[in-house]
Design brief:
This protein is mainly alpha-helical. The chain has 7 helices and no strands. The longest helix is centred in the N-terminal third of the chain and has 37 residues.
Length: about 220
């Protein structure tokens, strides 16, 4: 029985690490994949705009994989599982309610007719999804069994979680400022700030989950 329990724990940790890698490498693979498979080096305005590139299937597939894991994720308390389930729904909404296509993109691989309200659903779901990621890092991952003494490695991992959570929140805030403060989009759009900030948030998400899987700072 003990051997089976150990195998289950190891498998669960590996799934966390795998999820972290999916999130961390998503921006990198989307950019390099569009370049390598379509010979298009133009950066898209956001991660979501890669839906319309040759890497669109990978984008949707990655979000579906994230959603599946989150749907079955169990935390210390019921609220943790509820947040994870909602995050899974948000990930699916981001995948299947795409953002408006870029009118200046030279990497467009597919075209589709869309209803304007879809864009609002996408942005709302994306904001809630990143907010859920911040919750995982700042609240869920930092919890500790009160019956056990916190190890030095756990304290260090908590610092990683908190740092990642703060980065995600800052990215959400800066994306909101960029999109809603008049004049910023026209002034800075050439630098793809939304893409950069979303990538930073995904890097933080990935590192947080990889740390949760104890790939580094592992308890003895």
């Amino acid at each position: 029985m003990q051997t089976n329990n150990n195998a289950f724990v190891i498998s669960y940790l590996n799934l966390r690490i795998a999820l972290g890698f999916v999130g961390f490498f998503l921006p990198i693979i989307l950019v390099l994949g569009t370049w390598g498979f379509a010979d298009c080096i133009q950066l898209q305005p956001s991660i979501s705009h890669y839906y319309y590139t040759i890497m669109g299937n990978y984008f949707v597939g990655s979000l579906c994989a994230v959603a599946m894991f989150l749907f079955f994720y169990k935390g210390f308390e019921k609220i943790d599982s509820i947040v994870a389930n909602f995050a899974a729904i948000f990930a699916l909404l981001v995948a299947f309610f795409p953002t408006d296509p870029s009118t200046i993109s030279t990497c467009t691989f597919i075209s589709t007719s869309r209803i304007g309200s879809v864009n609002y659903i996408h942005y709302a779901a994306a904001g809630l999804l990143f907010s859920s990621f911040a919750y995982f890092s700042l609240v869920l991952f930092t919890k500790t069994d009160p019956t056990k003494m916190m190890t030095h490695q756990k304290k260090m991992r908590n610092n990683v979680y908190k740092t990642c959570g703060i980065i995600i929140l800052m990215c959400i805030l800066l994306i909101a400022i960029y999109n809603f403060v008049p004049g910023l989009v026209s002034k800075f759009s050439a630098y793809t700030p939304t893409l950069v900030l979303e990538s930073l948030a995904l890097f933080a998400f990935g590192i947080s989950w990889i740390a949760k899987g104890e790939m580094f700072l592992k308890d003895n």
